[in-house]
Amino acid sequence: xxxxxxxxxxxxxxxxxxxxCEDGHYASEVTxxxxxxxxxxxxxxxxxxxxxxxxxxxxxxxxxxxxxxxxDEEEVVEWLKxxxxxxxxxxxxxxxxxxxDQFENE
Length: 106
Hints:
This protein is mainly β.
């Protein structure tokens, strides 16, 4: 992980995998079906909108201050900075000498 990458840690299960869930229609070409009935698929095409970001392991959904699902990438970044301990050496772009006491992650 590079110094500028943000890390997600689920507050419920401590897993570190975050997924973006969309609503809408999805389509994928079936490229092969073998004799055992195993399918291979091509590229997945989606035509939906973001419904939520959640923990891949337990389904914990990221919520904003109004308890609404976070659906915007910029809000995810803010949520991560406010709710997840970041690796040592991570520099929070909101940090200045004047507000250093507001941030855990230096």
